[in-house]
Design a protein that fits this description.
129 residues, alpha/beta, five-stranded parallel beta sheet, 6 helices, 5 strands, 46% helix
């Protein structure tokens, strides 16, 4: 049975391209363009992985989404991969070993992410689900 991924980004082109990549890897993929839309989908359907952009409709929309997911008992263990172009835009570099506790994600990566790297990270985060 295919693992389900919810891919969240406010860039329609990004969603289309990365949905295609994930589907080529055997994943069933839903998309959402806002944090609120993502929360509605997460509350109504079971997912094996959430992949979300950090900066969407608001500067911290990705973090708001992640914190809401972690607060709900039903979804708090959902693996989360955060994607961000913050480093490219601001020069600020997240470090998973130092920032994981407050970021509340299982993994993060700078955009752009190669198709092979995206599939590798998705496989790692869903391997025990």
């Amino acid at each position: 049975m295919a693992k389900r991924v919810l891919l969240v980004d406010d860039d329609a082109d990004f969603l289309e391209i990365h949905k295609t990549i994930l589907e080529s890897g055997g994943y069933e993929v839903d998309t959402a363009a806002t944090g609120q839309e993502a929360l509605e989908k997460i509350r109504s359907r079971r997912y094996d992985l959430l992949i979300a952009d950090l900066i969407m409709e608001e500067l911290d929309a990705g973090f708001s989404l992640v914190y809401a997911v972690r607060e709900e008992e039903k979804t708090r263990d959902l693996p989360i991969l955060m994607l961000t172009s913050a480093e490219e835009r601001t020069g600020f570099r997240f470090q998973l070993d130092k920032d994981k506790e407050w970021m509340k994600v299982d993994d993060f990566a700078a955009k752009p992410l190669s198709p092979a790297e995206l599939l590798k990270r998705a496989a790692k985060l869903t391997e025990n689900r």
